[in-house]
Amino acid sequence: MLIKIAWRNIWRSRKRSLIILAAVGIGLWTGIFLMAFYTGMIEQRINAAISTELSHLQLHHPTFRNEYEIPYHLPQGREMLQKISKDARVKVATGRVVVKGMIASASGSSGITINGVMPAEEQRLTNLPGKIVEGNYFTPPKTNEIILSKKLLDKLNLSLNRKVILTFQDKDGNLASSAFRIVGIFKTINGPYDDSNVFVAIQDLDALAGIPGELNEISVLLQSSEMLELCQRDFIQLFPETKVESWMQLSPELGLTVSVGDQMVYIFMGIILLALAFGIVNTMMMAVLERTKEIGMLMALGMNKLKVFTMILLETFFLILAGCPGGLLAAFATLALTNRTGIDLSFYGQLYSSFGYSPIVHPVLKFQHLEIIMLLVLITALISALFPARMALRLKPAESLKK
Amino acid sequence: MKETVIDAHNLSKIYDEKTVPVYALNNVHLHIARGEFTAIKGPSGSGKTTLLNMIGGLDVPSNGYVEINETNITNLKGNNLIDFRLNNIGFVFQSYNLIPVLTARENIEFIMLLQSRPKAEREQRVWELLKQVGLEDKANKRPGELSGGQQQRVAVARALAPKPQFILADEPTANLDSISASNLLDMMAKLNQEENITFVFSTHDQRVIDRARRVITLEDGKIVQDTLPTIISHSHSEPQT
């Protein structure tokens, strides 16, 4: 009966309740959509980072990543690569020679990371050919071919088939340099990455660096991200002299973005719900004030404090929960639409790209996030009910009945 | 000798005790026996409602105490007092005070739900009471769809639902036209005579005073007149439980 009373009570002031229901619905819609938008954006960034830049795991000499110096290559890197490639959990693994150096053209120069890659494996791992917007991928047995980004190309005022000079320190600390012909131009969503990376075939670089046949980086893409921790632990055991790092360790700022992103969305959702809570508290307090006499009568007749509290609590819950289906439906519909088409933010494209994010965002709603949102909504309802319920409990039947 | 249901001892209610004391009730002694049909009359501000509130456990006296069936309700607090009211006292208010979102039937049943009575018993009693107050055909109407007189009948049925020791009715006819008031009084008088239900009214409605068998007059918080109760032989003499 309390449920019946509470439900009917919220419809006594239909217009007022509908306004609150609309506010709850819009708040929920906005909150869910923003959460999905942000999750989608982060996931795309992570997926791009894993598939293009970092892979799931990378293996290096323990001191290699401090200075990227050639002497710190992986001893017996190719044997390690073979062992790793045979692991069933590994989708694809590739070896690289990575050096920091300089690219120079007739019109300028720039500091870059030179990635000496195994063309076939790299294709499977990072889909580099798929990112080529002009020209071709490596065409063995041709040598000294280079693929660089459109951004770098423009910066150095270059064009396809022109030659550039790559210069870096070799194993012995001597300057090594060689001319490479531009065969392909790539473009990713990550501006800073494009700006600072070039690709050459590993056999053109390792000899020049003084480490023929060696590797200083092994990059591993797993069948699933869920295997990451276990694989990392196994590889650490298998190669104790090697540093095995996950993408989160390789790019801590990216790992941080995920956790900070989640927190930010929850804070944002919290703010929406807090604003809603004020509206709901106001509505419920009005409802209690308008029904002072009625509540006093109920207490006089024998309704105890727990039941009065429960009645107000139920009314608040119903007021909030009745707004949820509309908000959820609107959110699901919006997400279904935008997840398929993506939200095109290309007018801010440069800005997004400079932070490594795709300008077309496909929102993603995780069930876990939805659970947390609904929990937050229920907590809001509970907190919102406390003030009006307390107000109702303080009423004295004799005084209330006089009003 | 008739069994005493309400026993009020030295009841006083003083407002502004620290500045200029105002006596809403001043040392009132009152005994009401089972089966009485009593009206408490007096001008506005004489203390009628205050006295009723104290008898009903809705207000606390500054001095004195109230016993209902030998239970000192002045000492009861919180949920104990609420439960006592629920199980022992029926209230009928001036402005009906039904729960507007419930139907007549649900309004009556609600009280029994608070008492945790079984569904079958509730159903049976609701229809009994609706029949007694002559509103069987209005069972599913909400208060807004009933006339003032009909609403007050539902209020009486609701007050009777928990099988209380007595019913306190605060100005029950104040908002009713003369026909509705007369019908309501007839119904309550019948319940009193046939079911031995004790009624205590606060009123300044002469129609109620004329029907009462005992009239207590209050002035300035004091009982200035108390007519002797006229006890009528009842067709049902067993006390209510």
Structure in a nutshell:
The complex is a heterodimer of chains A (403) and B (241). By secondary structure, chain A is of the alpha+beta class. Chain A has 16 helices and 12 strands.
Element layout with pairings:
The complex is a heterodimer of chains A (403) and B (241).
Chain A: H1 2-10, H2 14-54, E1 57-60, H3 64-67, H4 77-86, E2 90-105, E3 108-117, H5 119-126, E4 132-135, E5 145-149, H6 150-155, E6 163-169, E7 175-186, H7 191-196, E8 197-201, H8 202-209, E9 217-222, H9 228-238, E10 243-246, H10 247-250, H11 252-290, H12 292-301, H13 305-341, E11 343-344, H14 349-354, E12 360-361, H15 367-393, H16 397-402
Parallel strand pairs in A: 3-8, 5-7
Antiparallel strand pairs in A: 1-9, 1-10, 2-3, 2-6, 2-9, 4-7, 5-8, 6-7, 11-12
Helix pairs in contact in A: 1-13, 2-11, 2-13, 2-15, 11-13, 11-15, 13-15
Chain B: E1 4-15, E2 22-33, E3 37-41, H1 48-55, E4 63-68, E5 71-72, H2 78-88, E6 89-92, H3 104-114, H4 119-132, H5 148-160, E7 166-170, H6 178-195, E8 198-203, H7 206-211, E9 214-219, E10 222-226
Parallel strand pairs in B: 3-8, 3-9, 6-7, 7-8
Antiparallel strand pairs in B: 1-2, 1-4, 4-5, 9-10
Question: What can you tell me about this protein's structure?
Answer:
The complex is a heterodimer of chains A (403) and B (241). The longest helix of chain A is centred in the first third of the chain and has 41 residues, at 14-54. Chain A has a six-stranded mixed beta barrel with strand order 2-3-8-5-7-6. In chain A, strands 11-12 form a two-stranded antiparallel ribbon. Chain A has helices at residues 2-10, 14-54, 64-67, 77-86, 119-126, 150-155, 191-196, 202-209, 228-238, 247-250, 252-290, 292-301, 305-341, 349-354, 367-393, 397-402; strands spanning 57-60, 90-105, 108-117, 132-135, 145-149, 163-169, 175-186, 197-201, 217-222, 243-246, 343-344, 360-361. Chain A is of the alpha+beta class and 403 residues long. By secondary structure, chain B is an alpha/beta fold. In chain B, 34% of the residues lie in helices and 26% in strands. In chain B, the strands form two sheets. A six-stranded mixed β-sheet of chain B has the order 6-7-8-3-9-10, sandwiched between helices. In chain B, strand 4 and strand 5 (71-72) form a beta hairpin. In chain B, helix 3 packs across helix 4 (119-132). The longest helix of chain B has 18 residues, at 178-195. The radius of gyration of chain B is 17 Å and the shape is globular. Classes of the chains: A alpha+beta (403), B alpha/beta (241). At the A-B interface, helix 1, helix 12, helix 13 and helix 16 of A face helix 2 and helix 3 of B.
